[in-house]
UniProtKB/TrEMBL annotation:
Pfam families: ECH_1. PANTHER family: ENOYL-COA HYDRATASE (PTHR43802), IP11341P-RELATED (PTHR43802:SF1). InterPro entries: ClpP/crotonase-like_dom_sf (IPR029045), Enoyl-CoA_hyd/isom_CS (IPR018376), Enoyl-CoA_hydra/iso (IPR001753). PROSITE patterns: ENOYL_COA_HYDRATASE. Belongs to the enoyl-CoA hydratase/isomerase family. This is Enoyl-CoA hydratase/isomerase family protein.
Length: 259
């Protein structure tokens, strides 16, 4: 079986690639554990000065794997607690990483995958990138930073509208609203992400680390907010609404966010 997260080295830059393309890089515990292990290895390697978080296939990640949730049956609460707990850990680890992280988003981002992007320092998006919550359509409660992080980027009013109406945020909107750093052509994404990571890696490491710490979120506050999301998620995911929503979502076979 292929590694769920590939680690590719280019000098002082490590490229972490979400590698579950057949399932649109939807999140399962195994993938999140692989991401955490990759972050551990990169942080322990003094030769790594910057990271790129990228993806294989047409989607950055479609968030939690709805089919995997649905297949849990009576174990769904325990599965949800594990998955969202690992997701929260990955988001906080990215935000707290001593080394800067560039996100290369050349496809769809839905559900809890949003937090993996918002935790990065520099976010490059192509015209193929988009961000959609889907919670109120599937019947889940927001996780992955949709309430814990997004309002700080786009404001409370926009965050409420996007989530309550399940609105899609285009790449252009993400750039205008402060979620993304730069719009680049898909064909140039890998090179642009590597160039950005190399540029930061060439700076004074201690200064970069302290700048990130000062500009980044209050980590205990972020963790508290993410854990509040997890608590609400676990209460909702066992509901009849969630069961019916998963059935409906899976029966639709959405091409945009196929899980």
């Amino acid at each position: 079986m292929s590694a769920l997260v590939l680690v590719e080295r280019d000098g002082a830059v490590a490229r972490l690639v979400l590698n579950r393309p057949a399932r649109h890089n939807s999140l399962v515990p195994e993938l999140l554990r692989a991401l955490l292990a990759a972050l551990d290895a990169c942080e322990a390697d003094d030769g790594v000065r910057a990271l790129v978080l990228a993806h294989a296939g047409p989607s950055f990640s479609t968030g939690g794997d709805v089919r995997a949730f649905y297949q849990q049956g009576e174990n769904i609460a325990a599965y949800g607690a594990e998955l969202v707990g690992l997701l929260n850990e990955a988001i906080v680890r990215l935000a707290a990483c001593a080394k800067p992280v560039v996100a290369a988003v050349d496809g769809t981002v839905t559900g809890g995958a949003l937090g993996l992007v918002l935790a990065c320092d520099i976010v490059l998006v192509s015209a193929r990138a988009s961000f959609t919550p889907y919670y109120v359509d599937v019947g889940f409660s927001p996780d992955g930073g949709w309430t814990a992080m997004l309002p700080a980027f786009i404001g409370s009013a926009r965050a409420r509208s996007v989530q309550l109406l399940n609105q899609r945020i285009s790449a252009e909107q993400a750039l205008a609203w402060g979620m993304a750093t730069k719009l680049v052509a898909s064909i140039d994404m890998a090179d642009q992400a590597l160039a950005s990571a190399r540029a930061v890696a060439a700076k004074v490491a201690g200064s970069v680390r302290r700048t990130r710490a000062l500009l980044g979120p209050d980590l205990p506050q972020l963790l508290d907010a993410l854990e509040r999301e997890r608590s609400e998620f676990l209460q909702q995911v066992v509901s009849t609404e969630a069961q019916q929503g998963m059935q409906r979502f899976l029966s639709q076979g959405s091409q945009a966010v196929q899980r």
